[in-house]
Amino acid sequence: MERRSFVKLGAVGLAASVVSPVFSREENFLETETSEYNRGAKMISTWSHGQPANQAGWKKLEAGGSSLDAVEEGARQTESDVTNRSVGIGGMPDREGHVTLDACIMDWESNCGSVGCLEGIAHPISVAKHIMQNTPHVMLVGAGAKQYALKHKFETIKTPLPEVKKEWEKWKKEQAEMVKKPEINHENHDTIGLLAIDNLGRISGACTTSGWAYKLPGRLGDSPIIGSGLFVDQEVGGAVATGLGESIIRIAGAHTVVELMRQGKSPEQACKETVQRLIRKHKDMTGLQCAFIAINTKGEVGGFSVYNGFNYALKTNDRDELIDTPFDRKW
Ligand code: ASP
Question: Which of 46, 78, 191, 225 to mutate to test the pocket of ligand 1 (most atoms within 8 A of CB)?
Answer without folding.
Answer: 191
